[in-house]
C-alpha cells in the first residue's frame, strides 16, 4: 500500500528570503526576467503572484508579511470566562452568548473551540482543567550528565500498592531507597510498615554506604545526594548525618518528580513489575461498584513482603539490562566504572542507628537481652552487671551498638547469640581465655611482690632486696609516672656554696678509731680546746 504524501512544509520564511533577494536585485537594476521565471518555477506560481509578493514587502518596510485568511481571535474577556469555567469552552461560549451586552458577535461553537486551541497550548488547556499536576506531563525535560559512580545519588519514599499483615493488623508498607545515578544501582533500601520518617532514611543510608556482608557491594560515600522537600529529608538528623560524611545535601522543590527521574523510574517499575502480581494490589481493575474482583485474597505477611522486595532489588541490579546503560545491567555498569570508592567500616557508622527508648539494659552472663533475644560480643567479658544503652537498625537487628549510660561512650557492637559466625565465635572464646589469663598473670605478679627476695651475703651485714632500685632508676620511674620528687632531682635554682676558708676548724669525727681520754659521762669544758 502506497504511503500518503506528507504535506509540504511551511515555506513562509523561505518565501520572505526570496522576496528580499528580488528587492535587492531591483534596487541595483539587476532584476531580469530570468529571476522571476526561476521563482515562479520553484514555488509553482504565476509571475503575477510573485509581483504581488513584492508589493506586499514594499508595503511592510521591505519585509514580506503574508496576510493569511482572517480568523476569529479570543478576546481578553472571553479568555477570562473560559479560565473561570476551568477550561470548559462550551460552558464559556454559552455564558458569553447569554450576555445582554456584547462587544462583538460571537462565532459558532466550533469556531470558538478552534480559537481557544489557537490561544492556548495543549499543556495550558490541560492546566486549566486539572491544575499544575495535569500541565506538567506536557513539559520537556533535559538530561543531566551522570558523570561516574557515587557522583550523585537520588533518594525517595514510595508507598507499596499492596496491603500486608503485621501482628494481625493490615498495614500499607513504605519503601525508602538510595540509587546511584550513573549506574542505576540500588545501593540501599529500607522497608517500614508505616509512614516513613528520618529513621527509615538513616537505615537506608546505612545500608547504602556499607559494602561488606550482608550489605550489597554497591556503595561507599557519595559526593552529593538529591532529596525532595519532604520534612523528614530536611530534618537536622539527616542533615547532620550527610554533613559528617562530607556529602552535599541538595534539596529539590517539593512535588517535582522530573528533577529526580532515576528514583522516580524505580518507584514506577516496582509497582508494575512486582506489586501487580501480589494479592490485594490496589491498582488492579475493579467491579463497576469500585470493589476488588476478589476481595478475599490472602494477603502477604510483612516478613514475606520484605523478602520479595529485597529479591526484586537484587534481580534488578544484576539481571535487568537498561537502554540508558547501553543494554548493560546496573551491576555491569558498576563493575565497568573504575572510579575509586571511599569505603567505610561498620564501626565508623555506629551513630547511624536508632536509640532504644527506656531504661538502660544490663549485661548478663548470656549477654544483653533485648526483644527476647541475646546479644553477645567478645568485649563483654568481665562486664557482667554493668548497664548499657542500646541502639539498633531496622532490618539489621543481627547487630546492635552498645554505649555507656552516663557518657554515651561507644563500647562496641554486639551480635545475636544464635547467629554468630565461626569467626565471631572463635573471637569470643579467645577473649574468654584472654580474660582468664590476665587474671592469672595478675595473681602471679601479686604473689611475687608479696614474698620479698634478698641476695645472698658472705659478711655479717643486712641483706639487700633483689628488687631494690637505684636512685637513678627510682627517679626515672617517678618521672614517667609524673610524680618526680625533689629528693631525686637536682635543682638548678640554688646558688652554689663557696669554697671553705683555710683557717676553718673542722668538727670532731666521732666515728674515728683514735683513742681519747674523754669520759662519756663528763661534758667537755667550753674553755678547753679540742685535741
Could you explain how this protein is built, in words?
There is one protein chain. This protein is α+β, with helices and mostly antiparallel strands. The protein is 34% helix and 13% strand. It has a six-stranded antiparallel barrel. A five-stranded mixed β-sheet has the order 5-4-1-6-7, with helices on both faces. Strands 3-2-8 form a three-stranded mixed β-sheet. The longest helix has 29 residues, at 422-450. The termini are far apart. Residues 516-531 have low confidence and may be disordered.
Widest sheet, order of strands: 10-11-12-15-14-13
> Uncertain regions: pLDDT < 50 for 5+ in a row?
516-531
**Could you tell me the number of beta strands?**
15
Helix count from the secondary structure assignment: 15
Gyration radius over CA = 46 Å
Distance between the termini: 153 Å
Averaging pLDDT over every residue, what do you get?
Answer: 83
Strand/helix succession: HHHHHHHHEEEEEHEHEHEHHEEEEEEEHH
Percent strand:
5-15%
Shape: elongated
Percentage of residues in helical conformation: 25-40%
Largest sheet: 6 strands, antiparallel, barrel
Give the class from helix and strand content and strand pairing: alpha+beta
